[in-house]
Amino acid sequence: MTGTAKGPVAAEIEKRLRDALRPERLEVIDDSEKHRGHAGHDPRGESHFTVRVVSAAFEGRNRVARQRMVNAALAELLRDRVHALAMVTKAPGEA
Question: Given the DSSP bridges, would you call strands 84-90 and 48-54 parallel, antiparallel or unpaired?
Fold first, then answer.
């Protein structure tokens, strides 16, 4: 499943996570509008995201290890374009 965000940054997040993690489910949500006027808000938009990822790559890994995998896949975007990223990372079969 693909999320509702469709801008170029969201599309790049989706592509990188699909390439790195081969997820069964992936949702990329652009939360930027909720942060208008706050520190870190980028007037171009697409600065704050939530990703929900279900991937077999997460099996046997704790929450921190899973988040590091997502961060590694998105490192350049996190450094240059994305101000905030919330994550829900699960292995298949987890509630």
Answer: parallel
Tell me the C-alpha distance between 95 and 92, whole Å. Answer: 9
* Per-residue tokens: 64: 């921190």
Cα–Cα distance between 35 and 94 in angstroms, integer?
A: 30
CB 81 within 8 A of CB 46: yes
Transcribe 68-91 into DSSP letters. Answer: HHHHHHTHHHHHHT-SEEEEEEE-
- CB within 8 Å of 42: residues ≥ 6 apart: 32, 81, 83
pLDDT digits (tens, 9 = 90+) for 6-62: 799 999 999 999 999 999 999 999 988 665 555 555 556 688 899 999 999 999 999
